Amino acid sequence: MTPASAAPRALHLRIATPDGLAVDEAGVRALRAEDDSGAFGVLPEHADFLTVLVPCVVRWHGADGTHRFCMVEGGMLRVDGGAEVAIATAAAVLGDSLEAVAARVREARERRLEAARNARVEQTRLHARAVREIVRCLRPDLHVDGIGRLEP
């Protein structure tokens, strides 16, 4: 523990994704996250700690008193030396409010769903083209019309 006369220590928070460093913030006064056992908090001087996060919203208080939020898709959280907090996650969505994070998560989800739909359509198109080519090679006497019907 720090003596009463000393300034309170703060946490240095880093949240990393495969795309890079999403958060690199010093002066964090408190942090909350969630693992399989439930929600937990981390304050300066916390014991060294390692846990597996579930998909959750990580919340923290900055040195200036602002509240920040980051949705993480699970990952690993490590507290080192009572001052360093590192989170490694597959994806992170930042915001200054829960509403902002929720909106960005919805937008990202809609983009992923649209991309998946487009991929399925393209896969079906390629499959149909492959079948037509196979039929054309195996049975040159047959013709496949534009909608997949075989014609002599």
Protein described:
This protein is α+β, with helices and mostly antiparallel strands and 152 residues long. Helix content is 27%, strand content 44%. The chain has one helix spanning 98-138, and strands at 11-17, 20-28, 30-35, 38-42, 49-61, 67-80, 84-88, 92-95, 143-144, 150-151. The radius of gyration is 26 Å and the shape is elongated. The N and C termini lie far apart (88 Å). The mean pLDDT is 87.
Give a nutshell description of this structure.
Residues 11-90 form the ATP synthase F1 complex delta/epsilon subunit N-terminal domain. By secondary structure, the chain is of the alpha+beta class.
Q: Which bin fits the share of residues in helices?
A: 25-40%
Q: Unreliable segments (pLDDT under 50, ≥5 consecutive)?
A: none
The H-and-E topology, N to C, reads as EEEEEEEEHEE
Could you tell me the radius of gyration in angstroms? 26 Å
What is the distance, rounded to the nearest whole angstrom, between the alpha carbons of the first and last residues? 88 Å
Largest sheet: 8 strands, mixed
CATH homologous superfamily designation of the largest domain: F0F1 ATP synthase delta/epsilon subunit, N-terminal
Sheet/helix structural class? alpha+beta
Number of domains: 2
How many helices? The count is: 1
| Percentage of residues in strands | 35-45%
Overall pLDDT = 87
Total DSSP E strands: 10
Keyword list:
152 residues, alpha+beta, ATP Synthase, domain 1, 2 domains, eight-stranded mixed sheet, two-stranded antiparallel ribbon, 1 helix, 10 strands, 27% helix
